[in-house]
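[[Per-residue structure]]
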Amino acid sequence: MPVVASDLEGTLSSGATWRGVGRYMEENGLSGTYRLFFFTRVPGIIGTRFGWMDRDKFGHNWMLDLIRLFKGRRPEQMAEMAEWVVEHELWPSRREAVIAEIESHRRSGRRIILASGAYLPIVQAFAKRIGAEAIATDFELADGRLTGRLAGPMTVGALKAERLGAALNGDTLVAAYGDTAADVPMMLLSAAPVAVAPDEALAAAARERGWRVIEE
């Protein structure tokens, strides 16, 4: 069966998981906890905007630190949070033209896989809306509750491509959508890579390789 894969944040939605989780906390009795978390990281935010800090590394550490705030939560509570983030942050900011292409692929009988470094429940909640499978970053559990750590490395870059390759299970990846250079390893597995509102590095790679580009 032919397969189409896509990144989520920046590709299918211009929304951001970190912002959605923060809004959820603000509106569900955790505003003080989140504000302390946020304001202690303001210097890093400024550093990434001016190019003094690596944006990907900062984002990676943000996701690692953010999950610590949910230590002791049950998976069903995280699923509830995930639905809220998709409903209020990611889905309203969806890129409708790209979603329409994905829907066209699905109607033609192709498997759709979302491969993302975002938290698994959030990717699953978005995937459910478009009839897709989900590959993402999961939480570590102990006695049915979150430990405040991830279950393994974040599903980005080469690891994303590796996990997607395993999920194909012999099927052919006919198209792959991504928005940053970190998506290139996944896109190289595809017969038809598509760069969506690409960052500078991915835009350069797309020009060099003749990949299709969907501008923002």
